[in-house]
Amino acid sequence: MKNNLKHAELKDLFLLKIKALYDIETHLVKALPKMAAHSADKDLKSGFKNHLKETQGQVRRLRNIFFLLGISPQKTQVEAIRGLVKDAEWLIKNIKDTRALDAGLIAAAQYVEHYEIAGYGTALEWAKLLGLEGAARLLKETLREEKAADEKLNRLAKHKVNKQAIRPEE
Ligand SMILES: [Fe+2]
């Protein structure tokens, strides 16, 4: 009985995490076009557009997880992602140098990626513990995408965008 209760508690937490991730991803589907639109560097712009497509796929994966769990998709409103997106919007509004803005947008996007990596990492471990193999497989795919997106942003910042931001605009 005690074991069952423990199990139920972790499953509740897991469900809450999936509802939070569903809110986060749908919020990002709305935010990413704005970040793409305000990127000057063509690689950054296409990177945001590609990640928008990936994010739409991540939303579909979460819907599949709800399906596997036998419940309809639900969201838990997450204030943190709204704060991170607001930070990016603040940069768009206040940084006038387009090259500096690009560097700032990468930094803002990496905050989001690290935040998502933490969320999916936890959800994946909990799914495994709960024996939810189908959900674990889907979460692992998204976790891999988020890590790849972060690494791509890292390379773009390091080898191009940060360097461009040092020089004044022509
Ligand atoms: Fe994502």
Biggest sheet descriptor: none
What's the helix-strand series? HHHHH
Strand content: under 5%
Oligomer: single chain
Q: Classify the helix fraction into a percent range.
A: over 70%
Question: Can you list the ligands bound to this structure?
Answer: fe (ii) ion
SSE order and pairing:
Elements: H1 2-37, H2 42-69, H3 79-94, H4 98-129, H5 133-166
Fe (ii) ion binds next to helix 1 and helix 2.
Description:
By secondary structure, the chain is mainly alpha-helical. Helix content is 86%, strand content 0%. The protein contains 5 helices and no strands. The chain has helices spanning 2-37, 42-69, 79-94, 98-129, 133-166. Helix 1 (2-37) runs antiparallel to helix 4 and helix 4 (98-129) packs antiparallel against helix 5 (133-166). The longest helix has 36 residues, at 2-37. The protein is elongated. The mean pLDDT is 94. The protein binds fe (ii) ion. Fe (ii) ion (FE2) binds at residues 25, 28, 55, 58, 116, 146.
